[in-house]
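Example pasted here:
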Amino acid sequence: MQQIVSIINKLDFQTVLCYGVGVPSVFFDKIKGNKLGVDKYDKGMFPRSWSSKTFADNIQHKNTKKKFDLVIINDSKRFKDLKEYFKQALKNINEGGKIVLIDSMPKTPLLVTDKPANHQLWCGDVYQFVLELISKGGYKVTTLDDGNGLSIIELDETKGPKEIQVCGFEEWYFERKKIMSN
């Protein structure tokens, strides 16, 4: 996690909104800048209760007009939640802002499942969501293969849709660096 924090802190931003990072947490506390965290974190629960994740439809912050230079999405990794988080993030970023998705590079096919175990933080939908953004166009995506992956997304109308061939995990894994950025 320290590597991911280091990468994020090298980005150019003053204000940051974090969705679901365990606020306060080692991750959240180490992010630089003026930050707001949105999470249902309960300090009395250890380890963090899986039942208290922040899902997109209960983001406490969603009706604000405030804009941020950076929005970090690091909670529910379900595809439908990611879509809602992303829609909300687009409303909350400044012009030229960035959205960061954490855990976008699965290391094994076991992590790519729509039926994760109760203790599993991540089900593999993040990389599929990133691929959908790349295939639609309109976004500059830079994915770094660090830890479980980190994708940095910026609005870029000059980026056209990119055709991505559907392939098995093994083929994707060996081509992931080329496929996951545009």
In short: The chain has five helices and six strands. Residues 41-59, 116-121 have pLDDT under 50 and may be disordered.
